[in-house]
Request: fold
Amino acid sequence: MKKTDICTIENSKIIVNKEVIFESQSKVFSEFAKEAYKSLELNYPKFHKMDNLSKLAFLASEMILKDGDHSKTAIVLANKSSSLDTDFKYQESINSQDNFFPSPAVFVYTLSNICVGEISIRHKMQTENAFFVLDEFDEKFLNDYSEQILESGKAEKVLCGWVELYQESYKAFVYLLTN
Amino acid sequence: MENLQTELKHKIIEVLNLEDVSVEEIKDTDPLFGGGLGLDSIDALELIVLLDKDYGIKLADPKKGKEIFQSIDTMAKFIEENRTK
Reply:
């Protein structure tokens, strides 16, 4: 199994295969993500509707998947905080009995694997996918799982990795695996 | 009424996170759904929340949304006739 492309996002930087392709002075994730979206000319308006976890996963995957056919690419991602960042935002919208206006657009992101759906929609992928919530990044676990998918013949490539975000703390480490 | 239409355009852009759309680009009679704004079913639910939160209109039958949200004009007319705040 080979690891081909690697994208890392942390500290307001996007690094693809050891090359910094975008860097921002902004320490606020949502601002950094918006600047990256514009600078990298991603041209996908639905990006602005995503929660921060999906934006992080989307940016990392986009750097790897932007070229090529991904109809046979599976997705296996993991993180520690699941969708807690958005869960709290949703809870805030329903805390007050007098001002009770739950947002449907926020609610749909109160599951961690929604970010996998966003990537799949973008690249028209109808392939195997999984999202694990782990205490820490366990590359062997993710690679073993991905290897089973590759050996089953259900996919030719697997987009694999770690997409962790909670408040202003975030890190993505996403890579492509092939046989 | 014209002020309400402009107000609605601002609110829709903000609530639905239409970052790449300007107020000038939304015409009063343009279809809100199935047109250039690319709105989906979740956006329709957000618009129902907007009616409740900002204008005190509770939409008992979500199916009515199809008529109300045809355009900025139809939405403004419905709000004018039914608003409680």
